Amino acid sequence: MGTLGVTTTANAATANDPAVETTQSDGQSAKLEKSDADDPVKTDVQVGKSETPTPTKNEDSVQQDQPGAQPVTTSEPAKPTNTVEKKEVTQEPEKPVVASAPAQNMKRMARIAPRETAPSVVGQDASKWMPDAGLRTWIEGDLSQSQGETVTDANLSTYLDQSLNLDTNDSSYSTDTGVASFEGLQYFTNLTSFRATDQQISADSLPDFSFAPKLSFFTYVGDNQHFTDAAQFMKDHLSQNTALTNLALNDGLQGNFPDLSAYQKLETVNLSNNRLTGYLPDLGNLPVLDRLDLENNQMSGTLPSFGDWPVLNVLDISNNDFSGALPNLKNFKGSDFREYYNQLSSGLLTFYNDQGQASDNYSWYQFLNGKTYNLFGTDQTFDPLTGVVAGIQDMETGQIDPNESFITYGFSNDAWIVSGDLNEAGSKADFLNWAAGQPSATANFVKVADPTNPLGFNLVASPDTPAGAYTLGIMNKSYDDNGGYVAFITFKITHNAPVTPVTPVDPTPSQQTGTVTIVEVDQQGKVLHQRTMTGNVGDTYTAQADQLAGYKVTGKSSVSGSYTTAGDTITFTYTATDSTGDGDHVLPDKSTTPTKKGQQAEVKDNGGQAAEISTPTKSAKAMAATVTPLHTHRSVDQTKDRHTVTLPQTNEQRTLSPIVLGLVTLLATLGLDGLLRRHN
C-alpha cells in the first residue's frame, strides 16, 4: 500500500493504462505500481487502490493453559498478494474539434460582439484583460488543441464562447510559472471542466466560478499545509455551480462535511485526504450519487443508512474515526465498500457486491476503547467483549448473525495481548509497528468460554497480572480469504480498587407541589385565622374566605389562581359585627394541610377575643382580599393538646390554654383552703 496522504489523479486518456501516472502530495510525478506489503494505506482520487495488509487466519494456534480446553486459533497479518485495482473513471466531456479557417474568426467576432458580458475585451489583446501570462498560455494551449487553430494573445478574445476544459496535467500548463491570478477567466462562460492539481495554485487565488453555469467537473488539490473550511470553500467558489457532476477536493479542507443538497446532479464526490471532522450526513437526497470517497479524514460518529441511498455503488470511509455498529446493509448493492481503520464495533460476515457475489470484505482493523475491570480477591475473570463489540452482520438479512462468534487474533509475534494502550501508537497506520515493540501479555491471561455470551469469551487474569492497560486482538471465526472483522481492544485492569457507590436517579421525578396560604385579618391587620392549601404546580385553585363569628368579609370572599413553586398568600379582611357578648366562633377550615414537623403555630389567649395566630408572613391591611407571592412560607397547623370548656348560655366550646386552666385550679384550691382555716 502507498503512504498515507498520497493523492493520485488520472486523465480520462490514461484511465486504462496499467501504469497510471499519479500526482503525489509533494507535487512530484510517480507511477502507481504494485505496493509494498509493509505500507499500511494507499489513497487515490480517480484511480483504483491497492490493498492494505489484509489479515489472514492460519492454522497456527496459541496454546491456552486451560484444563481440557481446545487450543485457540490465532493468526498474524500475512503479506497479501498485491494487485492494483482500478476505479472506474468518469470520462470528461470530449473536446470538440473545429476545422481551421480564416473566415471563422470573422464569424466568431460577429457572434461575440453583441454580448454584454465582455464587449470591452473583444478584439483586444489578451494581455490587457488577462494579466497572468501562465493563465493565458494554459487557456490558449487548450483552445489550440480543441479548435485545431493557433490561438494567441491577439485572437484569444474571439474564442470566448468556446467550450473550455482546463487541466494542470495538460502540456499547455507551465509548472514553472504556475498561475497566480485567474483574472480574465470569467469571460469564458462555457468553462465545463476545471482540474487544478498543481500545489502552487492556492485556494485563495481561485475565482468564484458562478460565471460558468455549465461547469460539471471540478478538482482541486491543495498543498496539505493550508486548510480552508469546507463549507466556506463551497460558498466562496462553487455556490452557484449546481450542474456539477464530479467534485474532488483534496489536501486542503477542514471542518464539517459541507452541505451538498443543492447539487442534485452529483455522481462522484471525492473529499479524501483532508482534515474533515464531525459526522457524515445522510446523502440519500442526492439521486444520482454513485461514488463517495472520504478516506484519510478525521470524521466520527455513527454511519447513516447508506444502504438505502438510491444508486450508491462505491463508498470508501477508511482511516477515519467512525464508531458504533454498521447500519443495515441488506439493501446495499454496491461494488466496493471500504471501512478499515475505524472504530466500528461490528463488521460483515460476507460482502456481497452489486452482482450478488462474495467480494473483498474490508471490515478489518477496527480500533476500540474497552472497559476498566476491577478484579477482587480470587475472582480474576472478566468479559472483554460485551458492551464493546456488537457482532457480525449478515448482509443477506441485515442483522447480527447469532452464530458468528469471535476468537483471538495474534497480531504481534503471535501475541494476541500486549501491554499498553493502542492510543499510544500515534496513528492507525503505525499501530502494528507500535505493537511489535510492546511486551507480550498473552501469558497473563487465559481465554475461557462465557456462559452468558456464546458469541464472545471471558478472560482469566493470573494473580500476578500487573494493573494497567492491555490491548487484545480478536477476529470473527469465519474470517476467510476475502477478509472479515479484526479489531484491537484496549482494556484496563485494576486490583481491589475502592468502589464509589452510585445513587440511583429516579427517572420519573415526583410532581412539584405548590402552596397557598390564606390569612384572615381585621381592619387593624390583626390575624384572626390562617390556613394553607396545597396542590400540584400548574393546577388551579379557588380559596374561599372562612365564616368567622362576629365578623364579616369586606370585599371579595373568594380568589382563584394557579399553584406555583414560589407559593402565594391570600389575605381576606374582616370587619367586626355587633356582638351579644356570647363570644366569637371560628368555623372549621374548609381545607387544611398538615404542616412540617416543628412548625406548630403559637396560639395566644386574647381575653375573649379571637385567637391570634403568630405567622412569619406580613399581614395585609387592604380592605379587599389580596394575593401576595410567598417567597418564604411556613404553613400553620392546628394546636392539638388543648382543654375545651363549654361556654355558658350557648354550649359552645372554647379552647383554653393549659396555663389559664392551671391558674384557675390553683386559685380555687387556695380559696377553699382559706375557708377551711377560718372555719377552724
TrEMBL record:
What keywords would UniProt list here? Cell membrane, Glycoprotein, Membrane, Receptor, Repeat, Signal, Transmembrane, Transmembrane helix
List compositional bias (Polar residues) regions by residue number. Answer: 49-83
Regarding the membrane, this protein is recorded as: Single-pass membrane protein
The reply on keyword Transmembrane helix is yes
Is Ubl conjugation included in the keywords of this UniProt record? no
Residue ranges with Low complexity bias: 7-16
**Occurrences of domain MucBP (ranges):** 516-575
List the GO cellular component terms.
endomembrane system; plasma membrane
Chain intervals with Basic and acidic residues compositional bias: 31-42, 84-95
User: What SUPFAM superfamilies has UniProt attached to this entry?
Assistant: L domain-like (SSF52058)
**Localized where?**
Cell membrane; Endomembrane system
The main location is membrane
Region Disordered, annotated ranges:
1-97, 579-611
The protein's name is MucBP domain-containing protein
